[in-house]
Amino acid sequence: MTKNLMFAVVLFSLALAGGCAKGGNGEGSGVAVSVTDAGSLNVFYVTQVEQFTATVTGTSNTAVTWTLTQGGTDCTNNAALCGSIDSTGKYTAPSTAPATPKITVTATSQADTTKSDAVTISVLAISVQLTPSPVNVGVGFTQQFTAVAIPDDAPQNFTWSIASCTSACGTIDTNGLYTAPPSVPSGKFTVQATSTLDPADGVANAKVTVVGSRLPSGTYAFRSAGFDATGAIAVTGSFVSNGDGTLQSGVEDELTTAGPVHRVINASTSSYTVKSNNQGTLTLNASGPASHTYTMVLDAGGDIGIIESTQDGTDSHGSGVIEPVTLTAFKDLTALNGAFVFGFSGVDLSGKRVGYAGLLPMDGNGGIAGGLLDTNDNAGGTNGTPLAVTGSYTMSNGVGTLSLTANNQTYTFALYGVSGTKSAATPLTLYAIATTFDAAHPALSGTVILQDSTQTYSNAALKGNTVVNLTGVDGTTGTNSNVALTLATTDGAGNISGTHDQNDAGTITGPAQSFGTGYTYSAAGCSNCGRYSVNLLGNPAANPPTPMQFILYASGANRGFLLEQSGTSSMSVMTGTMLPQKNEPGGLYTPSMITGTYAATTASSATTHVDPIADNLLLTWVNTGTCTAQCINGLQYDAANPAGVTLTGAYTLLGTGDGTVTLTAPVASYVIYATDPSHFEMIDVDKAVTNPSVIFAQQ
Known about the structure:
Blueprint: H1 3-17, E1 20-23, E2 32-37, E3 43-45, E4 49-57, E5 64-70, E6 73-74, H2 79-82, E7 84-85, E8 90-92, E9 102-109, E10 116-124, E11 127-131, E12 135-138, E13 142-144, E14 146-150, E15 158-163, E16 171-172, E17 177-179, E18 189-195, E19 203-211, E20 218-228, E21 231-241, E22 247-256, E23 259-264, E24 271-274, E25 279-285, E26 291-298, E27 304-308, E28 318-324, E29 337-347, E30 353-363, E31 367-376, E32 387-396, E33 399-406, E34 409-419, E35 429-434, E36 443-450, E37 463-473, E38 481-491, E39 495-504, E40 507-520, E41 522-523, E42 531-536, E43 548-556, E44 559-564, E45 575-580, E46 596-603, E47 613-619, E48 632-638, E49 641-653, E50 658-665, E51 667-676, E52 679-684, E53 694-698
Parallel strand pairs: 3-10, 12-19
Antiparallel strand pairs: 1-10, 2-4, 4-8, 5-6, 5-9, 7-8, 9-10, 11-14, 13-17, 15-18, 16-17, 18-19, 20-21, 20-28, 21-22, 22-23, 24-25, 25-26, 26-27, 27-28, 29-30, 29-36, 30-31, 31-32, 32-33, 33-34, 34-35, 35-36, 37-38, 37-45, 38-39, 39-40, 41-42, 42-43, 43-44, 44-45, 46-47, 46-53, 47-48, 48-49, ...
């Protein structure tokens, strides 16, 4: 049973509970009864014990008679169906959840039997959510599983086992730590967590696949961007893994202050390793003196975050991702047929931040016509008026080129296909990196995504909750970084409102600072091309708060690339993405929803002083409302600690999907915004951190 379904059951039961049903407290003898319970609970788990209290006024005889009913039928003496309640009001839920979970607890005055009060509760079987699932585990390696019993306040005690195993499938200990066998077993199997309180219903299974390598044979695309000792650096490319720690081939394009260069990766001297803690290293030796060593962190599905460091670990370098390539989706240029949107960031020749966003209609035959481009070059950019774009492109077996002409300037890029299809759910995705860098052509890299062609782009297309991440530089000096996370609600009629947290070079806005209900967005520049003007953030000291203006190129409903366009004096050059927040049942998130293993990395560092990090995280939840044990642990890697340091801390999560992370080692404070139960974003909100970055975490 998935966590969403289990949560829906809980919410359904809450709806049934619906508050207290008052009875018999009208006019008459003056006697009144009021019932409360110690925990103010509406939902009970099986066998749960709770003390109810009846307060009787209007008489010296305060004794009451306690009864239980289900559907209007007395079930006081049917403990198997309704549980039991003693003369003091101590209630014990039944050991098996009733088919109709709603039970009414009534206290009747013994002084006046016409006076009573009642509370309606629901008794649920315990359900278990188990993460990660599905998961790939390398032979001989370990994988930590985490289980949560729902309702959240149910005893968090489990029996761990391996189910449906037909051969040597490995072992699992009493804490959910799985160890894979030394060779790939035959057949499929699961790791199973069973509630010790409710073994009949409280069972969850995680699908496990033991693999010879966490980087199995195939093609992978990668991108990394940041800064080294000489200035900005970006690398994008692809390689073919043999699945045994060696590479078959590869190519990459690199941007540094020395200019762009295309290199062939030397497969014979390049290699990778992956370890038990979902961590590994990748060394790519390219033609010439170029060598890049990356620390890798992996999530359960095989997505990989990376950071780069030099051998001595003293210089801050880039961070990014590695993803498996769907080669059939990028066989030739005919696959690129439709409108694509993009978001690029980088620096100009003087080292100042630059952002580009736009639309590229590709004809499937190598031609681009009717495109749009918005820029921000640290002086306001196109100021809300897009440039017309034409161009051409090539593509063969996942690698290609892109040439764009706008305002009499031609920009060239290398293209690397990643994954996806032509569907709205999994759109084609490519990485791009500039192959020209001079006074007229900034060093840019970023992502290109197929736009959903089934969507009508109007104000009505932006409706619902979205999570927005933004990265830029300090708007005053332009030397430190400025990041923000926003939870915004769009109404489909041109209005946007919400809350945000921001760290602008150590100046903190938040927690959950609201921004005004009068902000608007509107389509501009073209017909049904998905280009919007959006107002976000704002100065809370102003009255009313002054928003920042952004251009959004939508890849679909409530998603796309953002570029700041706040006017000719703008220095912050904020760029980012908008992602729809998954609607949970009842619109509520709970802390137990986001438990599990995560890979987390910084992205799109804005300044040379940002310290890129990569984290292996394990989130657990052991109680309701607060963290009473170790809720976050793992390892954190950065340039100064390429071998990793122990990470510990705790987290909170509100029903809206935003919350906090407080690390005790290394000491740090973050806010988090969840886009769904498997993905969240976070930023550092310590005042001493003047060069923060956005961190993306995914299971």
